[in-house]
Write a structure and sequence with these properties.
Layout lengths: L12 H17 L2 E9 L21 H22 L10 E8 L5 E10 L16 H12 L12 E2 L5 E5 L5 H12 L17 E3 L3
Antiparallel strand pairs: 1-3, 1-4, 1-5, 2-3, 2-6
Helix pairs in contact: 2-3
Protein name: Inovirus Gp2 family protein
Length: 208
């Protein structure tokens, strides 16, 4: 039986069920799936700040831009590998995310993505700009922020301790890994630190 993290108060059951569905869809297509948990932050800024580039863009479409950019970067990488006669595998990116607010009112995002483990089996050395998943994620977040090329902001993407989960439906430990992951992701569903409104979504996920 799946247990959830209730240490931070009530959970949004609708969000829990949505995340379960995303995982189910991921492993149905890719029987060997890797999940990556991350924290996506915004630059420190003020309305009159000159510390960040003028093109910095934060609005309600930021997560859509992030996913679109990451999808494009993965597709481009696969295309380059094929040209080099390197074997590739289909990689349908799936995701869930939740927006929360700090005490100062500044938002941040908790996110998880799901990829084919035959395509990516680790984050790679993302401290070096190269064709590894960690680098693609960090570059995609800068693209979403309209900060492409400003490498000083790459650290806005934080990979917490033990960010990877390997889901293999054909292995006996699948249920345990699924339960461990859902306990981790249930933190995304906590009501605390969220603002529910029609103007700003507090949660998003893949639809298929």
């Amino acid at each position: 039986m799946t247990g959830y993290n209730n240490n931070h108060g009530p959970l949004n059951e609708h969000y829990i069920e949505k995340m379960k569905t995303v995982i189910g869809n991921a492993v149905q297509e890719h029987h060997r799936t890797m999940a990556v948990v991350m924290l996506l932050r915004l630059p420190e800024y003020a309305n009159d700040s000159e510390d960040i580039p003028a093109m910095f863009n934060y609005d309600q479409g930021i997560m859509s831009r992030f996913i679109e950019s990451l999808n494009a970067k993965i597709a481009s990488l696969m295309k380059r590998k094929k040209k080099q006669d390197i074997r590739t595998h289909p990689c349908h990116l799936r995701y869930s995310w939740a927006r929360e607010y700090c005490q100062n009112g500044k938002p941040h995002y908790h996110a998880v993505i799901f990829v084919n483990k035959d395509s990516f089996h680790s984050l790679g050395d993302y401290m070096q700009i190269s064709d590894n998943l960690g680098s693609l994620i960090r570059e995609a977040w800068l693209s979403a922020l309209k900060l492409t090329g400003h490498s000083e902001y790459l650290s806005l993407v934080h990979f917490p301790e033990n960010p990877l989960y390997y889901l293999n439906v054909n292995e006996s430990q699948y249920t345990q890994v699924f339960n461990d992951l859902m306990y981790r992701l249930s933190y995304f569903a906590k009501d605390k630190s969220k603002i529910y409104s029609k103007e700003q979504r507090s949660f998003g996920c893949s639809q298929r």
